[in-house]
Amino acid sequence: MNMQQARKSDMDYILIHRETIQPNRAVMLFHGLTGSPFELKKYAKFLYDKGFDVFCYCLPGHGDHEIDIYSVKEKDWRDFANARYKELRKNYADFFAGGLCLGAVLALNLAQENKDISGLICLSTTLFLDGWTIPWYNFLMPIGLYTILRYYYTFPEREPYGIKSIKVRNTISKLISKNTVAMDNYPLSAIFELLTLSKKVRQNIKKVFAPILLVHSLEDDLTSTKSAKYVYKNISSFYKEYMELDNSYHLILYDNEKDKVYNKTIEFIEALSYKRNITLKELQNRKKK
Q1: Strands 240-245 and 212-217: what pairing?
Q2: Which residues contact 264 (CB under 8 A, 6 or more apart)?
Q3: Is the overall model pTM greater than 0.90, yes or no?
Q4: What angle do CA 92, 94, 99 make, to 5 degrees?
């Protein structure tokens, strides 16, 4: 494969078309809470094979040192995403941003602050923690979230690990148990930061003008379709698509309907390219007249 893998950290996953002197299109993807770029690896390879340069960075607080996540702030995530975006955007004609879970929320925030994003790909967007595996004692969470207790409590990662496919679930659970691809728990402090970021994104949702693709499972175990529907209903984007899945859980990039997600992504991007080309032709024709 003709590519360059450059790593700014042990977990960064970057795919660059070296044969292209001036590449036209790129995608920057963000992983989920307590996850890593590993969960985006196959998806990134798929997009690379379709002609995109792809950038998947390990978010602050995640990575080799598990203790780091206890001190990370949502501002660290926002600042990191913005810095990477400004560093890369000038090199491409089209630049898409997206992600899974926390990554989707971060991509929305990025679009609120940068109006030149070509499009958003938001998968399992997590604005609300209301999935069917959230503990029944969820109503007690604010007691921990808004006190010092949030630095001492964690929610253990447990079955079904966000995956409906039994075969894939078994594989992922083994990797998680070894702490090689993701943490095996959700620190309450990290959940607090995710919810703080999600609240900010909701408050500024009208500032999202970028074309957007939202994909969400009807059986998402972490966050219901309420999150994706909220985004779809309230954003200012002129072009938006929403696709629901009925045979997957939260990690839709690895579950039973991953091919649908992959193919819908390319369909969405190509539709944008087509619409843009038509608009450019209309403008050129008007100038001629």
Answers
A1: parallel
A2: 213, 215, 241, 243
A3: no
A4: 105
Token representation of residue 25: 């299109």
Q: What is the DSSP string of 23-91?
A: --EEEEEE--TT--GGGGHHHHHHHHHTT-EEEEEPPTT-SS-GGGGGT--HHHHHHHHHHHHHHHHTT
Integer Cα distance of 170 and 163 in angstroms: 9
Neighbours of 237 (CB within 10 A): 16
Per-residue CA distances from 77 to 72, 139, 194 (Å): 8, 27, 10
Residue type, 43: Y
Q: For 192-234, write each residue's pLDDT tens digit.
A: 899 999 999 999 999 999 999 999 999 999 999 999 999 999 9
Report which secondary-structure segment, H or E, holds 121: strand 119-123
What was the pLDDT predicted at 176? 53
The share of the chain scoring above pLDDT 90, in percent, equals 56
Report the distance separating Cα 250 and Cα 216, nearest Å.
8
Pairing between β-strand 119-123 and β-strand 212-217 as defined by DSSP bridges: parallel
pLDDT given for residue 191 in this prediction: 86
SS3 labels along 152-173: CCEEECCCCCCCCCHHHHHHHH
Q: How far apart are CA 37 and CA 30, in angstroms?
A: 7
In whole angstroms, what is the distance from residue 39 CA to residue 193 CA? 21
Helix axes 188-203, 74-89, angle to 10 degrees: 60
Mean pLDDT of the 259-288 span: 72
